[in-house]
Amino acid sequence: MSMLEGRSIIVTGAASGIGAEAARRFAAAGARLTLADRAANATIAEEIRETGGIAQFVAADVSDEAQVRAMVAQAVSAYGRLDGAFNNAGVDQQPVALHEVDLAEWRRVTEVDLTGVFLCMKHEIAAMLDNGGGAIVNTSSVLGAIAVPKSAAYIAAKHGVIGLTRAAAVEYARRGIRANAILPGAIATPMFADAEKDPAMAAQLEAVKEAHPINRMGTPAEIAALAAYLLSDAAGYTTGAAIPCDGGFTA
Ligand code: NAI
């Protein structure tokens, strides 16, 4: 039996990058998917259905509680239960020093990257308690564990995601819910592929690669594989963990 056979799983930020690749990976492992994104782009759900998988698309902004509640309700109504969630939607911040971060920019970043994860967990956990348990995986970042200049809001939010993950892990362990966080290093999403074609960006990208001991960027598939494992019963004794997937960047 495939590792996520029949599991009802939500993926947020599923329209692009890591979320889209996770959707493909979970579908191949037998999951029944609710793919959510703020961008009303259902292409990934259509792709999965066309290749024989089970997926529905829900347009939802993770920073809006009513939309998150509706997203979870739609997963439960389609599949009868919620077994897992990959809370992965996120935005980057404008690269400016902390003393120059507008309050509006702080709020834009933290409302998606931290409050969004809180709202998703709140409603997903309520649904999981109804069926005796489940597994949550949150996308943090290496910047959830270390800091670099000009990313204070993102860094604070991604550190917060690890705190939320740990809080849920200890609070719900005895009720069958596990919660873990993945800390990706630089992942070659389509955004990076575009940058690679730009000679002005190429040198910067080379430096990014060299900062990782493995000397390349990671792939969305490598994050998706770790997420699939953490959502599966194979990770039954792993909870409250914050796991780097970063080519040795934070080692
Ligand atoms: P991406 O930009 O390709 O995909 C993010 C998706 O989230 C987009 O489809 C976007 O529409 C969606 N989204 C943004 N705000 C949303 C909201 N409020 N509600 C619902 N959906 C929303 O980015 P990527 O690279 O796939 O990133 C996914 C996650 O991985 C993010 O949390 C990001 O912070 C994290 N990450 C990415 C790294 C990288 O190098 N790509 C490194 C470390 C962490």
Automatic annotation (TrEMBL):
SUPFAM superfamilies: NAD(P)-binding Rossmann-fold domains. GO terms for molecular function: oxidoreductase activity. Pfam families: adh_short_C2. Keywords: Oxidoreductase. The keyword Phosphoprotein does not apply. InterPro entries: NAD(P)-bd_dom_sf, SDR_fam. It comes from the Bacteria. Belongs to the short-chain dehydrogenases/reductases (SDR) family. This is SDR family oxidoreductase. It comes from Sphingomonas chungangi.
